[in-house]
Known about the structure:
Number of helices: 13
Keywords: G-protein coupled receptor, Membrane, Receptor, Transducer, Transmembrane, Transmembrane helix
CATH architecture: Up-down Bundle
Strand content: under 5%
Largest sheet: 2 strands, antiparallel
Number of domains: 1
Radius of gyration: 23 Å
Structural class: mainly alpha
Shape: globular
Protein name: 7TM_GPCR_Srx domain-containing protein
CATH superfamily: Rhodopsin 7-helix transmembrane proteins
Main location: membrane
CATH class: Mainly Alpha
Pfam families: 7TM_GPCR_Srv
GO molecular function: neuropeptide receptor activity
Order of helices and strands: HHHHHHEEHHHHHHEEH
CATH topology: Rhopdopsin 7-helix transmembrane proteins
Amino acid sequence: MRAWQIPRKVMNNADEWRLSPLSAEDFFAGLSLILISVFSLSVYVIMMKIMKRQDKEIVGYRFLISAGFSDLLLLVNYGIWPGLTILTKSEIIPKNWRTWQQLYLDWAWFSMVSHYSVVSWSRWVAIRKPLDFRNQRRKTSYSLCGMCYLVALILVLSTHFQPWYVTFYYEPSSYGMLAENFQLYLSGGQSALFLAFHVAAIVPPIVFYIWSISLLYKRRSKMLLGHQQSVQNSIETRLLMPCLINVVTFIIGQILITVGTGEGKWAGYTVMVLFAANSALNPFLLLICSKTLRKQVLELLGVTKIATFDKLETSTVYRNIHAVNGDFCSSKLVSSETGSRRFLSLPTFRSKEELSSGTPV
Length: 361
């Protein structure tokens, strides 16, 4: 793991703490980690279920689903798991399993970090080459996402069995994780390796998002289609923003942990919260920035009944390119607010070049 994930000194009274009953602080630390993670995980699962239903038409959802899976793992790893160790005052697993636990934890973490580049690339392609992106096969999309997990696996397998590699483990009394040999971690090269990986991982997202925002700005300044183009830009921006904010949150969290969170058990707790929050924020960012997802989540929960696809069908962004006829125009039978049924005509394009001016999710 990373040097900034641990408090700077180990509690000397760990054995004494294990023998004493749970205190109010222990209950707060353990329960808060679990509740934050369970709540976020539940919302995330609902959103992923909705996105999975539409991933044939909305290509961008495929990348968000894959990134969401890695986030679910991290919510367990940095929220539910450490919370349980605190409440049970136990490491839960045998000590001789620590190496394999570490391998899994790092694989899940680096899988999540690798998705930043893939998701940012998908946002850029959706804006830069919308027609190509709209035609992307599901197999291609999920294969690209699978590469994130494969790269992470290769990285951990190539480092975990080196003599300089230091294993971290959950220490309940510290409310976080500790290193078996912290000095070796700092001097053996492991800390520098992970720091280099994180720096390299955030460069592509920064480049792609800046480029994407620049493209959107230029397109907005050249609007020729009036409100229709404005609607498309609004959709693009709402779907771009949660991904961009997530990268910014990740960078801020890494800076805070690197600078330091203090000493003692609350330092370990703060680190776990920061790492859990990095994944816990994602579903709420999507809900805030995407009106379409927000409506569908409320409808699924039975809070409100909304004709969601009335909104979707007003833009070529949500059209399946394979359903478009020869002159690039189609109609959709929808229900109006009064209960009557009518045909909704979608924008007509005379050529594929005109169609490509739109931007898919």
